[in-house]
Amino acid sequence: MRISGGRFGGRRLLVPRADVRPTADRVRESLFARLGDLAGKRVLDLFAGSGALGFEALSRGASHVTFVDRSNGALAVVRANAAALDVAARVELHRGEARSVLRRLAGKAAFDLVFVDPPYAGGTLGGALVGLVAARLLAPGACVVVESDRRQAPGEVEGLAVIDERRYGDTLITWYVPRGPDPAATSGAEASET
Questions:
Q1: Which of 36, 63, 69, 89 has the highest CB neighbour count under 10 A?
Q2: Which domains does the chain have, with CATH numbers?
């Protein structure tokens, strides 16, 4: 697998041998073309696997990536990829189930971009999104990008608003932003106070 663009464009990444479904090259290229400039962004890569999404973000200007995976083997590969790219100082690794790690991170960081790419058959997607919102880890203007099987779309999540969905064969990419208070409810309350 290769990084598709940016500073490390063309560099190869190691991939764990088992239990990993790397994001297809064309999906990654389309995704990052849409994200644009990532200069200075803090990124969270849940269900990291090889770390391809996080390393692609670093290649395109992100300042820091936190990788989360429950597999020691996957995190060993992420560590090796970080060393090969000479970015170990700009990454942080956390081992554990996504929701547990999100609880541990609560109050310690705010992320501008979050990738959520769980195993399709794992049934952990909804819980991870709920945990992300509950931990209040999203910076103002943050974007959450979810990769799922098109037959198991993540749908609505309290605290997040879907702004786009794109299909690539059997892969569905869903874009979320934090959902703030309802502007109509706020303006109605202000009107009643005057």
A1: 69
A2: 25-193 (3.40.50.150)
